[in-house]
Amino acid sequence: MLIDGRISSMKYTNSKVEEIKFNNKKFFVKRDDLLDKDFSGNKARKFYYFLKNDFQNITKIISHGSSQSNAMYSLSVLCKIRNWDFDYYVDHIAGYLKANPIGNYKEAIENGMNIIEKKLDDEVSKDLDKSIHDNTLFIPEGGALEEASFGIKILANEIITWAEENNTTDLKVFLPSGTGTTALYLQKYLPFEVITCACVGDEEYLKKQFLELEKDNHPKILALDKKYHFGKLYKEFYEIHNELKRQTNIEFDLLYDSKGWLCVSKHLCDCKSDILYIHQGGILGNISMLQRYQNKYN
Ligand SMILES: *Cc1c(COP(=O)(O)O)cnc(C)c1O
């Protein structure tokens, strides 16, 4: 089939690693944000399984979450490539977003997403959870599923190869977490320490997420003194985002990376090991966040 030929010739893997300096400290950055123009970052790794494998009977994906989610956008790209329908449930869509679509929401709709403003009923989701029903695949919120390990293992192997080629043996890998799926599977497949921080929920929530996937071998979790709530605006998030852009010329994501870099700055600046920071994309989501930040702080 033509579509399969197209998928196998597209790569969506092998992102480059760049050396940067931030506040006079050297870091390496794995540029997963540049994997592809449309299918990039964390969600491209986590949904790679669904891009690459054969799903002969599948004609539709159902998922749910927020109306500006990166997972929602990436699933819309996946469904477009594979010619699948995409039903996405959200509890609520803000009136201003409906009136002026931007960011992930706008692009996902343009990709053909069928957005349904309705709570995904517990019965329905239990029924669909992680199993294939008829012609439908259910993807839990944020892509927290075992199949994610397929693409994350490939990411781990790229890191191992890079470290070998650069004779790097004392390496720590940092990435900020949402569900923790990516950090956990990276730790599973990497011979290096994986360090993370909790961006959605607190450190206890993240530990619980890890436990649901694996009994042990969990990534190390760094914390900040102040509590942050996912999706809210914080002046220090905006400032470090702008400072990173100014010093490194790389745009990082505002929801995860700002907290990630605050943690790195606080805990890892005196670290003797080389640090590899995984840039997990999310730049399309910045459009709506930047609009909110500019209204508040500029
Ligand atoms: C989804 C996402 C994360 C979090 O990934 P988890 O596997 O849920 O921890 C981090 N950064 C970006 C940009 C994301 O889109």
Question: Mind explaining what this structure looks like?
Answer:
There is one protein chain. The chain is an alpha/beta fold. The chain folds into 2 domains: 5-39 and 147-297, Rossmann fold, CATH 3.40.50.1100; 45-144, 3-Layer(aba) Sandwich (Rossmann fold), CATH 3.40.50.1100. It is built from 13 helices and 11 strands. The protein has a 6-stranded mixed sheet, sandwiched between helices. Strands 5-4-3-7-6 form a 5-stranded mixed sheet, covered by helices on one side. Helix 8 crosses helix 9 (181-189) and helix 11 (235-248) crosses helix 12. The structure holds pyridoxal-5'-phosphate. Pyridoxal-5'-phosphate (PLP) binds at residues 41-43, 70, 142, 176-183, 253, 256, 280-282.
Features:
binds pyridoxal-5'-phosphate; alpha/beta; 298 residues; 6-stranded mixed beta sheet; 5-stranded mixed beta sheet; single chain; Rossmann fold; 2 domains; globular; 11 strands; 44% helix
Please give a quick description of this structure.
This protein is α/β, with parallel strands linked by helices and 298 residues long.
